[in-house]
Fold Cys-tRNA(Pro)/Cys-tRNA(Cys) deacylase.
Amino acid sequence: MTKKEKIKKTNDERILDQNHIEYVETNFDWINNGRDALKEAAALGIEAKSMLKTIVLQANKDPKDYLVVCLPLEYELDLKLIAQELNKKQVHLADNKNLINITGYIHGENTPIGINIRKGFPIYFDKRIMDFDEISVSAGKLGRSVRLKREDLVKLVAGKYISVAK
C-alpha cells in the first residue's frame, strides 16, 4: 500500500482556509501551455471565461500607486478605459522584471488573494465575470489555481467591478 502524496498548500490557499472560504485546487499552466490549458479546463466542465489572470498596473508613474485587475485569460486590457474608470491620468503595466519586489510573486504566480492581503493593493474585477458563480485565480504558484465562489473572492479582497475593455 502506498501513501497518497499530499500536496503542500500555498500561502494563498492557507489565507482562504483562515477565512473559511471553500475552494478546489486545480492545475492549469496557462503560461507554459496556453490554449491547451483552456482545453484541459473545458474537459473538466470549466468555462474558459471564468478563469482569470491577474495583471498588476501602475498608475500615474507613481511608485506607490499600484493596482490589480483580474480578467478572463483570453481577454486583453484597455489601459485608457481603466484609467478613465478609476479617475487616473494614466495606467500602464507594472515592470514585469520587478514583479517579485512589487507583489511578492513572479510573473504567472500573481494572485489577488495574496497581493491584497499582504500589499493592500486595490483589486478590480472585469464586469464580464459577473455572469459566473465560480471563478478560478492563481493560487500563488505557477500552474496552480483555486476555483471558488466569485463573491467570496471579491468580498475577501474588497474587490470592485469595472469595465476593463470595450
User: Anything to note?
Assistant: The chain has seven helices and eight strands. The chain has a mean pLDDT of 89. The domain at 11-162 is CATH 3.90.960.10 (YbaK protein). The helical segments are 11-18, 30-33, 35-43, 79-85, 99-103, 112-119, 150-156.
